[in-house]
Structures are given as structure tokens and as C-alpha cells.
Amino acid sequence: xxxxxxxxxxxxxxxxxxxxxxxxxxxxxxxxxxxxxxxxxxxxxxxxxxxxxxxxxxxxxxxxxxxxxxxxxxxxxxxxxxxxxxxxxxxxxxxxxxxxxxxxxxxxxxxxxxxxxxxxxxxxxxxxxxxxxxxxxxxxxxxxxxxxxxxxxxxxxxxxxxxxxxxxxxxxxxxxxxxxxxxxxxxxxxxxxxxxxxxxxxxxxxxxxxxxxxxxxxxxxxxxxxxxxxxxxxxxxxxxxxxxxxxxxxxxxxxxxxxxxxxxxxxxxxxxxxxxxxxxxxxxxxxxxxxxxxxxxxxxxxxxxxxxxxxxxxxxxxxxxxxxxxxxxxxxxxxxxxxxxxxxxxxxxxxxxxxxxxxxxxxxxxxxxxxxxxxxxxxxxxxxxxxxxxxxxxxxxxxxxxxxxxxxxxxx
Length: 412
Known about the structure:
It contains 15 helices and five strands. By secondary structure, it is mainly α. A hairpin with a 5-residue loop joins strand 1 and strand 2.
């Protein structure tokens, strides 16, 4: 029997290596059952199976395969499956086993089997999720814990899955709105660089025996081409390094995040779209948390993290502080100066009528539709603008290089 493997980690602590084991045995009724389990050794698997009433199990260690990264879409799909199975009466551990084995990504399978093992050894589901903060944030764990305490876990998992699906849809629309123009501009730069490095030098050779002064635009393009040919590695390296440094700084620096988020909200075309998407995400999160019975002050903590924008994160923290000292949510939101009057009026009605979660849900629905309309309008607006930019850049280069030929034709 294998012993648990351990490796020394930082600070002298030991990190237990967890592996996947396949097992087969007989349950109390004599029926042959089998499955998989994540544990630190065969002895742990055997002890767990004995507690479950599995007699004489055969245990085999499986090779650990690769697997893609666990994405937010994977977690959303898992949450929806788990909610559906629990509503159908499938026991929690069996539901985990079914979802884990049915997933195509080995990384998700290992994650779910690890969580299942934690639950089997006595942890609550909320505690098991909290061990993996990279995949399950505070909002997720708080809702699951609230569902366990209130005995309505399947209902809250269904609400959580709906929330995640709507948030993913909003993020997808924002990415769709940004991806198209960025991809076109990247292609335009690559095409321009190819023309500068490979095409313009051929024209330059042809114009050597022209016997007349070249037009100014042609000389400018030829000079630019010389710089591209001579320093192409510096140009591409500087652009690549600059993009990497920019996004790395944006990811790690709070000051940079604050500056960029404020800048995005002020952009003439995309700013309104980003603001609407942030408000939709903010109200949807608070509605979900409040409907689950999470106290308002605690819910606002999760809302701040889920806002996705540093401006609204800071505003939410300020709202949370004011609410904790006795202010109403309506007054606190009004003092933050980041929400439209319609949102504040709807929240005020919700507080007065005692249906705050419903009003916040209606606000979220409204702004999600606004995001849909804004993305469609933006796509229609960006297409002619991008075509005009490509026409000016590529067409300008072509015209500049053909001007001497036109001049020669006029002379003849």
C-alpha cells in the first residue's frame, strides 16, 4: 500500500501530493460499484470507501493527464448541471461524480473530484469551495453557504447559475464589441508592415532611373520604408514589449487599473457601453445576493469585487461604509455620483416597498438590453469607420507609390 507523498514547500511546510485513484468493490447489498477518487494515497481511498460501506475494493492509481485551464464558462456549466441534478433529487456526492466524469477537460474533473473528497471527509460545500478561490469567489461561496444553512441549496445553485450565465453573456458582448476593431487594426498594421518591408523597396529600385524629382508623398513613404527595413526588429519588439508591459502593469498596479477604468468610462464611443455593462453586473450581483438572504453590508462586499471596474469598486466600498453606519442604500448610492437617476429611483422604490431584489433585477434586465442594443449599434458604426481607416492607410500608400507613374504619363 502506498504511503502519502509529500514535498517540502516554502517555510518548511509540507505540501501533500494528491492523485486520482480508480476503485471497484461491492456495496452493502452486494452490488458491484466503481468510481474515481482524489486522495493523497491508497490508504486514504480504502478508509473512505470502508466508511461508505464498500467491501474489498480494488484500487488503482491513474496517470495524471494534462488539461486546459479551468475557465469561468466551465464553472458556470458545472453550476447549472449541479443545480439541475439536485433539483431532480440526485444526491450531492453522486452529482459531483457524474459531472466530473462527464467533463471533457481533465483539469475540471480533478477540481471537482478534489471538492467531492473534501465534502466526503466532513467539510461543508461552502468550505470546500473556499479552498479554491481562483475558481470560486466570495460571492459564489457566500451564496452556497447561505443555501446550505437555509436548506435551499438547489434553489440558490439555480439562481447562481442564472446569474453566472447573464454575467458571462455581458462579458461576451463587451469582448465582441472590442475584438472586431482591434483585430482589424492589427491586420491593417501587419499589411502595412509587409508593404513597407517587401513592396516599397521594389518601387524604389524601379524609380532609381526615373530622371526627375519624385513627389513629396512618394519620398515620405520611401523614407518610412527604409526605417521599417532597417529597424523592423526594433519596431516589432518595441510594440510587442510595450503591449506586454502595458497589460502586465494594468493587471498588477491598482493605480494603473484606476486610471484605465476611469479612462474607459470617459471614452466617447465605448465609455457608455462599459458603464451600462458595469451597472448591469452591479445590480444583478446585488439582486442575487439580497434575494439569497445575505445581509446588505456583507452583500455589498461581494458586489464590489464583482463590479469589474475600479471606479465602481471604490464607490461600492463607500456605499458599504455609509450603509453600515445607518444610511439607506438609496442615499448612499446617490452620494457616490456614479449611478444614473433612474437606478437610484428604482432602488428607492424597492426599499420603500420591501422588494429591493426584484427592483434591482428589473434594473439589471433593462441595462442588459441596453448593452445588447449598444453592441449592435456600435458594430454598425465601427464597420464603416474601420473601412475608412483601412482605405486611407492602404490606399494612401498605393497612391503615393503610383504618383511618379502618373507624372510620367502626363509628361508623355
